[in-house]
Write a structure and sequence with these properties.
Elements (H helix, E strand, L loop, with lengths): L2 H11 L5 H48 L19 E3 L3 H15 L10 E3 L3
Parallel strand pairs: 1-2
Length: about 120
């Protein structure tokens, strides 16, 4: 059969839509799409605010752990420790690393060593 004849038959068999009906269908279609976009936007704002609150709580907890008070120099040493160490121009992290390396090289437990002071030599 001829394709043009089939196409003409298909258009003739359907009901004709007037301009008002077509406009109403178009407005409802646009409204549904717009409503879907608005709902998606609301969901994204809600999830964004949830993640922002979670990140703020994590940052707050992180600053609370960093804001721990400095150890008192006159306080007695903890059981098993060898006393206080005087740090000259070096931070605590580097000093701890140096003490761990020395204890490892000497093959001696760290609590059996006594460090009096550590300073950076340039």
């Amino acid at each position: 059969m001829n394709l043009a004849l089939l196409a003409a038959q298909a258009t003739d068999s359907g009901t004709k839509m007037e301009i008002g009906d077509a406009a109403l269908v178009a407005v409802v279609g646009y409204g549904v799409v717009f409503l879907g976009i608005v709902m998606l936007m609301v969901i994204l704002y809600i999830t964004g605010s949830i993640f922002k609150k979670r990140d703020a709580k994590a940052a707050e907890a992180k600053t609370e752990t960093k804001a721990a008070p400095a150890p008192d120099k006159d306080a007695p040493a903890a059981p098993g420790s060898a006393g206080h160490v005087k740090l000259n121009g070096i931070d605590e992290k580097d000093a701890a690393m140096i003490m761990a390396i020395v204890a490892d090289k000497m093959q001696t437990p760290l609590n059996e060593l006594r460090f009096i002071s550590i300073k950076e030599v340039e």
